[in-house]
Every structure is written in structure tokens, then in C-alpha cells.
Automatic annotation (TrEMBL):
It comes from Hermetia illucens. InterPro entries: AB_hydrolase_fold, Lipase, Lipase_N, Lipase_panc, TAG_lipase. GO terms for biological process: lipid catabolic process. PANTHER family: LIPASE, LIPASE DOMAIN-CONTAINING PROTEIN-RELATED. The chain crosses the membrane at residues 21-38. GO terms for molecular function: serine hydrolase activity; triacylglycerol lipase activity. It is found in: Secreted. This is Lipase domain-containing protein. It comes from the Eukaryota. Residues 72-388 form the Lipase domain. One of its GO terms (cellular component) is extracellular space. Pfam families: Lipase. Its main location: secreted. Keywords: Disulfide bond, Membrane, Secreted, Transmembrane, Transmembrane helix.
Length: 573
């Protein structure tokens, strides 16, 4: 006697679901292997497979709503959420913006005629623009704040004042405080609607006041930087977008549609100051490390800014800031010092007399070692307000020819590095020291220790310059040691004298560094060369001034442990 067992329909459905899940997993695993063979960077390779627009269409991931959703907002346009807006790790959730009435985007105009009393501009009310101090003949600067910020933030008024001081500018502050508050996911979505509102105003300025898009400069911080990018997607030909530490969460690793990218304006320059990545086991930062402009500036490697470490000198800034600037600014120092530093650097650059000169370099370590110091072939760029368009973009412009002197001054696209100070003045002069070491018979092959210097010129003196800023350094006789140091003072073109101070360092954990009775702890120096960086100009094409100084007594200087030697500009060879 045989018994026939009938399976319940739910069991067959469960098996089918498991099979579909296994199939989807195998498809994703196959896709991951294919991507891992690409030429992208290690982190991008590891995570790029998770972008929803990279996952094959037939892979069903029920927690990601891939269907095309669209919402329209009257005359300003529509928004949709498609696959490209999702990433399994970087951007797993997406929502639509809050209603227009809640975000309540407002545009407040300031000019030299009304530097502190703003005038409200309404796109649909032409009289509000016509009766304001808006001048179509002037360039227009938009200031866009970020997450948890408002137009009342100290930095907004500081930037506004510095811009107006330049004269003949329309400065428009974008107020989207109704949509910049937590939750962050919702705030990121709200930026898209703010961009539609901005694009609507710009179109009104174009059609009714003949404003040219190339005369518009969008300056955005954090989420405001990506907002500027969305505006650039709506309005073709925007002259310039400056991204001040564009926000990382929900944007890093995403496609260009989702974030700020070079296609959003004729010129996109970006300052990165808080690009510490959670995925690289660092203390997470608020800003992107990923390049997203034609020129990307990384002051102090774009991560930890001088004076911001609470465990060091940064902790002392909080009570002082609280007294001077109030609780809001003190909170910024405590929670977002690195993130806000991009704003301070840009503000300082507007009317400051010290140029923020940056160097195109493979890495910050190469920059500190002095390997990217020459301002030739467009390898230097000025960071901040006075940043200039790369030569490649100029060659693609309407002009048929570029003047030779313009080619010399124009930078190339890429990543640029520089060092700044921990407090005002943030701008620093860059000096490259090249210490040429001699190798007499009595010298050890190498010695380890610390070097400091003093520079004397016609303009004054700088003392206590640390030439081994990363601690005890190994110096090999017969070679050259190079390092880039910074100082806010400009010593001019001619260095008269340099004094070197040498201190040998013995480490009990490294027996070869122990120098008691059987070794020579002296440092032998043939010459010292000091180079000062300057941006090239039409009048002065030599971008750096070099001063080689030698010992007056003999072929080389013999510097004993804890001793010093003086070098003069009397080299005969």
C-alpha cells in the first residue's frame, strides 16, 4: 500500500522564494567578481557593485524600490527617484522632499547699497526683483548653507560682508532653514527641491533681466555644495560652482547625477577639509574625500585641520570661542571644526593679501617631501575665491587662442595640496628646504635626529623652523634631504643667511642609533637651498625664488650634536 503525500502550496511558494533569493545572490556575487577586476581604486572596487544602477535589472532586491517614482512641484518642475539614487551601503534610503511650504526657500539679496539689510526676491513676483537693488550688470554670488545651518549663522554674514567689500556684486543668501534640520536623510532629499527653487529664480533673472548664466557663481557648504550641483544640472552654462567640503554621507561613491561633479558648471572648484572615511577605519568626517570638481584642493591632506584636535591645542579654542563668538560658533569648534574650516579658508581668501598657493601632487606625502614644488606646466593653483579655470577648459572656450602668458598662469585639472595654519591668518607661505649632505671619511653612513633652522633676509628673520616636523628623521650622508615648511611671513626674494641646528637622537629600541664611544654623531652639510613659492604672473614667469647658501669656512660644515652652523649666500659653485 503506497501513500501519496501532497505538498501544501505555501511550501512550494517558500521553495520558489528561496530559489529566487539564491539566484539573486549568485547574480550579485558574479557581478562583484566582474567589478573587482576593474581598474578602480580598492575602496571603490569593493563597494561600487552596491550601486543600484550597477546591479543587473533582473536582480530583485525587495528593500530597494527600483521603480521610477516622480513628483511634480508646480511651475518649478518635477523630481524622480530611480535606481541611480540607491546604493546598498552609501545610500540605502531615499525619500522625496518636504512640501514647498515647509522648506520655505527664500532668497535674500545684499549689495553695496544694502550691505546688511536684505531684500527678499520672489521669482514669481517680478516687482520684488525690479524694485530691489539687484543689478543685472554685476556678477551674482549665491551663498548656500548646509545641514542644520541657517542664514543667521555667523559664517554666512562674514562671507556676505567680504564679498560685498569687493564691490559691484549681487550677493544672494539662500535660506532653506525649513528643510535643513534633522533627519539627515530628509535634509538630503530637500536639497533637490531647493535646487529647483533656485533654478526657477535664475530662469526668471535670465528671461526678465538678461542675466547670463556664466556670470553666476554658486558657493555651497556641505549639503549646499551638492545643492549647487543640482542647480547646475537644471541650468546649463553656470559660470562657477565652489564646493566647500561637500557632504560625504549619501554622496560619496555615488554617480555624478546624485552629487556635485565637474559637469555642473563651466568651472567647479572644491575645498576638502574633513574627508576622513568611516570605511578606512578613521574617525568619520562630514566631508567627501572623493574628487568632485575640475580642481580639488586638499589643505593639510583634506582631513585633520591644525587646531581642530580636541586632545591637543583645539580643546583650548572652545572656551575662547564661546566668549568671543557665542555658543553657536563654540558648538562648531566642538563638533565640526574640520568641516567648517573650508568656509573659513574661503572667506579669508576673498580679500586677504596672502595667496593660498596649492601644488598639484600625487599625494600629501609627496607634497611635504618637496617633490611637487615647481610652479611649471600649470602645476600650481590658487585656492579659494581667486581660483582660476584650468587651461583645458580655457582651450574649450569660445576663444580660438590663449595667450602664452595665460597658459603659464592657468593650472591643470587635478588634486592640489597645501598646508595652512591652525588659526588666523590661516594662509601660509611655503618654503622648500634642500639640505645637501656631505660624506667625508669620518661620517657615519646615516644619523638620526632633529633639524631646526633660522632664516635671515632683508625683510627680517624667522627662527625655530622645524625641518623634521614628523619627528626624528634619518639623514643619509652624501644625499639630499628635502622638506616643505610653512610660515605666515613673507621674507622676500633674497635670503642672506641660514642657521642650522642639529640634535642627534638615540633610540634604545634601535641599537644602530646608539652613539656613545664608537660612532660619530656629527652631521655634515655641504649647502642649504631655500626656495619660496610664488604664483606665476605675466610680469614674473619664474614661479619660485631659489637661494643656495654655503659654509664660509670649508667645503662643508661639521655640525656636532646639539650644535649649529651658519650658511651664507656666498656659494662659488
Amino acid at each position: 500500500m503506497s501513500l501519496e503525500v501532497q505538498q501544501h502550496p505555501s511550501i512550494n511558494k517558500c521553495k520558489k522564494t528561496r530559489m529566487n533569493a539564491v539566484t539573486s545572490f549568485l547574480q550579485i556575487l558574479y557581478f562583484l567578481i566582474i567589478v573587482s577586476l576593474s581598474e578602480a581604486g580598492p575602496l571603490d572596487v569593493a563597494l561600487s557593485w552596491a550601486r543600484a544602477d550597477k546591479i543587473p535589472i533582473d536582480v530583485n532586491l525587495p528593500w530597494l524600490p527600483f521603480e521610477n517614482e516622480t513628483r511634480c512641484y508646480g511651475e518649478i518642475g518635477c523630481l524622480n527617484i530611480t535606481r541611480e539614487w540607491y546604493h546598498l551601503i552609501y545610500r540605502p534610503f531615499n525619500v522625496f522632499p518636504l512640501p514647498r511650504s515647509v522648506i520655505n526657500t527664500r532668497f535674500i539679496l545684499y549689495t553695496e547699497e544694502n550691505p546688511t539689510d536684505g531684500q527678499l526676491l520672489v521669482a514669481d513676483e517680478g516687482d520684488s526683483i525690479a524694485k530691489s537693488n539687484f543689478n543685472p550688470e554685476w556678477e551674482t554670488k549665491f551663498i548656500i548653507h548646509g545641514f542644520i545651518d541657517t542664514p543667521l549663522s555667523n559664517w554666512v554674514s562674514e562671507m556676505r560682508d567680504e564679498l560685498i567689500a569687493r564691490g559691484k556684486l549681487n550677493v544672494i543668501v539662500v535660506d532653506w532653514a525649513g528643510g535643513s534640520l534633522p533627519l539627515y536623510t530628509q535634509a538630503t532629499a530637500n536639497t533637490r527641491l531647493v535646487a529647483l527653487e533656485m533654478a526657477h529664480l535664475i530662469r526668471t533673472l535670465q528671461t526678465k533681466f538678461n542675466v547670463q548664466p556664466q556670470d553666476i557663481h554658486l558657493i555651497g557648504h556641505s549639503l549646499g555644495a551638492h545643492t549647487a550641483g543640482y542647480v547646475g544640472q537644471q541650468i546649463q552654462g553656470i559660470g562657477r560652482i565652489t564646493g566647500l567640503d561637500p557632504a560625504e554621507p549619501y554622496f560619496q561613491g555615488m554617480g555624478p547625477t546624485v552629487r556635485l561633479d565637474p559637469s555642473d558648471a563651466e568651472f567647479v572648484d572644491v575645498i576638502h577639509t574633513d574627508g576622513r572615511s568611516f570605511f578606512l577605519l578613521e574617525m568619520p568626517g562630514y566631508g567627501m574625500s572623493q574628487p568632485c570638481g575640475h580642481i580639488d584642493f586638499y589643505p593639510n591632506n583634506g582631513k585633520e585641520q591644525p587646531g581642530c584636535a580636541l586632545s591637543q591645542e583645539g580643546g583650548t579654542l572652545i572656551p575662547l570661542t564661546l566668549i568671543k563668538d557665542g555658543i553657536e560658533e563654540a558648538s562648531r569648534v566642538l563638533l565640526a571644526c574640520n568641516h567648517v574650516r573650508a568656509i573659513k579658508l574661503f572667506i579669508d581668501s576673498i580679500n586677504g593679501k596672502c595667496p593660498y598657493i596649492a601644488h598639484r601632487c600625487p599625494s600629501y606625502q609627496h607634497f611635504l617631501a618637496g617633490r611637487c614644488f615647481k610652479c611649471t606646466a600649470g602645476n600650481c593653483a590658487q585656492m579659494g575665491y581667486h581660483a582660476t579655470m584650468p587651461i583645458m577648459l580655457q582651450l574649450n572656450s569660445s576663444e580660438n587662442e590663449i595667450l602664452p602668458e595665460t597658459r603659464i598662469m592657468a593650472p591643470q585639472p587635478g588634486k592640489y595640496f597645501l598646508a595652512t595654519g591652525k588659526e588666523y591668518p590661516f594662509c601660509q607661505r611655503h618654503y622648500r628646504f634642500t639640505v645637501e649632505l656631505a660624506r667625508p671619511r669620518s661620517a657615519e653612513t646615516w644619523v638620526q635626529g632633529f633639524l631646526t633652522a633660522a632664516i635671515y633676509s632683508e625683510r627680517g628673520a624667522l627662527r625655530g623652523i622645524d625641518l623634521t616636523p614628523r619627528g626624528t628623521t634619518r639623514l643619509e650622508h652624501g644625499t639630499k634631504y628635502q622638506v616643505v615648511v610653512t610660515n605666515p611671513h613673507d621674507l622676500g626674494d633674497k635670503i642672506r643667511k641660514v642657521e642650522l641646528n642639529w640634535s642627534h637622537d638615540m633610540n634604545v629600541l634601535e641599537p644602530r642609533t646608539l652613539c656613545l664611544f664608537w660612532c660619530n654623531d656629527h652631521l655634515y652639510v655641504r649647502s642649504v637651498t631655500v626656495e619660496m613659492m610664488q604664483m606665476p604672473s605675466r610680469e614674473k614667469r619664474n614661479a619660485n625664488t631659489s637661494n643656495r647658501l654655503c659654509s664660509p669656512k670649508r667645503e662643508y660644515a661639521d655640525i656636532s650634536n646639539r650644535g649649529s652652523s651658519v650658511f651664507y649666500d656666498n656659494c662659488k659653485r
